[in-house]
Structure formats: structure tokens, C-alpha cells
Amino acid sequence: MLETGQTNTLIASISHARCEYDATVYRCQGGSIHSTETQERELEVFIKCAPRPSPFYPPVTNISRTLNGSAVLTFTIKAYPKPDISAYSWYRLNDSTWASITDVNSVQSVSADGLQTNLSIPRLQTEDFGRYRVTVFNELGNATQEYELRAHDKPETPKKLHVKEGSLGVDSFTVEWEPGYHGGEDQTFVILYKAKQSALQWTDVNVSSNTLNYSIVGLKSGTTYLIKMFAINIAGKSEETDVVTARTHVILADSPSLLTAVSIGTTVGGIFCITLSAVGVWCMMKRKHQRDMTKLLIQTQVMKSANLIPDRKTNTKLSKKLLCASIRFFH
Fold first, then answer.
1. Distance between CA atoms of residues 315 and 294, nearest Å
2. Residue-wise pLDDT tens digits, 169-207
3. Residues 6+ apart with CB under 8 A from 121
4. Hey, which end of the chain has fewer CB within 10 Å, N or C?
5. At residue 93, does pLDDT exceed 90?
6. Cα(138)–Cα(83) distance, integer angstroms
7. Confidence band for 275, pLDDT divided at 50, 70 and 90
8. Residue 188, Cα to own-chain centre: how many angstroms?
9. Cα(101)–Cα(120) distance, rounded to whole angstroms?
10. Mean pLDDT in the chain?
């Protein structure tokens, strides 16, 4: 807002001045009816403030780059007094500790006006991806900015694909592998398999990145299968692994089937039941013969005691009955 003081003086006032927007060069122009020339004056205004991100060049804090590519992290500020080069420091997060960057794989720089710093990494390696931090200060305070540098590349080929020991069955087997580098993005494993002699296309199965083994089921017995795999993410797919083979077990032709086993069990059970029945009949007959023999012996003894055996002929008949009963009993 312009205010008139004296007739030859103009006063401009700015309330709540901010170093981000109000610290700049101002120009004043004036003239009069007595001259055709315009009078002009420039004035640079400095507003003291601690460092803060420039609203005109906001930092890009999430950066994706490919492995072996390059990356530049930039921080532009507004501050007065302007910081010198020693006021800037770059750090990388190692585990849970912010470590000062001193390696030769990166280059730190500060602009001539002291209001911008850059961290340049010309050839990114796996260990370069992660979180970064820059700090800057002047006599009034300091500012901190963090960055996330992520890899953006297709994943590496899975490693050591093989059939798990002891997993072969008549219609299934299990494969195992080790993951390669995921490329900085979530990856999915794709397993492909088919019978060796088959002209059909490969059957594919998608497996999440949290899985490092998979059981393939529903296969034919006694058949050799070919297996391979690759990894994929939003940036692309890896190369395929070498092909490995696995042969399912054979079902033996002379192995008794379930129906045969049931038939054998039924037959054996029937024979067992018949045998038990025969033994039961034999035991019943034996007890009957025992009772008959006992009765005959008692009868004979009673007759002898009562002198009821009158002659030799009757005695002989009783003896024969007793003998026959004894023979039947012991048989």
C-alpha cells in the first residue's frame, strides 16, 4: 500500500512480510507535469528468515529410477542470510541410523547463490536405493527434507529352481526356488509346466512373492514333466529359468486294487464264519454225547446195585451201548 508523506516522498508498507514472497526487488516510478521524463528507482528488499523449502521449486520427494541409471535429489530453499556450502549436509538411512554420505559414488553440490543443493548418483546400485535426508541452517534456524529413492526395474530371474526332495508322488510334486531382486516393485512368480511328450501349450500358475515353493497336482502317473518359471512386476518380466524335469511315480499293475482287497477280505471273513459255525456244531454234538454217556453209566450202575441185570445177554447189550457211546464221545 502506498502512502503519501511529503509531496516529494512515497512510502510503501507491507504487513506480515514473508521471505518466500515479499523479499524481492521493488521498482518505483514517478513523473511530473513539468517533465516528460519518468523517474525510476529499484530497491531490493531482504527479509530475514530461517531456511524453508521454496514454494516456487517444491522438492520431488519420491523418485523411481532403474538399476544402473542415474538420479539427482534437489532441495531449493528461501532463507536470509543465505547459507554457505558448509551449512548443507546429506544423509542416507542405514538400518535405523542416519549416516553422513561420504562415498565416492555420489556428488554433493550447492548453487552459487547458496539457495539450492543437489545430490547426484550417476550409476545406481542396489544399495543406493532407500531413504535420504538433507539439512541446512543459518543463524535463524534450520530446515530438513527427506526423500525416497526407489528402484523401478523388471525383477531378476528366480534362482535355484528344483523339485523338492521327497515330494514326488503318482500325481504331484513340489518345486522350490529362491527369489531374485524384485526391481523395487511387488513381484509375482509364474510357474510353467507340461508333459515332456505333450504337444499342448505350457500350463501357467501365478504365485505371490511371499511363496517360495508350490505343489503341482492333478498330474499323470509315470510321466515326465518339464518345469520353468519367471518373475514379473509392473516394470516388466524377468528372463525364464532353465528347464528342470520331474517324473511322477508309476502305479504298479500287480498291486491289488481296493475292490480286490475288499473281495479278499470278504472271502476270508466268510471262511472264518463257516469255521466258527462248524466248531460250534461240533461242540454241541460233543456235549450231547457226553450227556448220553453219563446217563448210560448212571443207569448201568443203578441196575447193578439193584440186581436188575438178570442174565449175561442183557449185561452184554449194556456193555456194547456203553462202548459205542464212548467211541462217539471221543470222536
1. 17
2. 999 999 999 999 888 889 999 999 999 988 889 999 999
3. 70, 71, 72, 105, 106, 107, 128, 149
4. N
5. yes
6. 6
7. low
8. 10
9. 12
10. 83
Amino acid letter, 278 = A
Is the distance from CB of 107 to CB of 88 less than 8 angstroms? no
Q: What is the β-pairing status of strands 141-151 and 62-65?
A: parallel
Cα(154)–Cα(234) distance, integer angstroms: 7
Provide the residue type at 293 as one letter: M
Work out the average pLDDT over 41-62: 94
Q: How many residues are listed for the chain in this entry?
A: 331
Write out pLDDT tens, residues 227-249.
Answer: 999 999 998 999 999 999 999 99
Q: Measure Cα distances from 15 to 1, 12, 18, 44 in Å.
A: 9, 10, 9, 17
∠ CA 240-246-248, rounded to 5°: 145
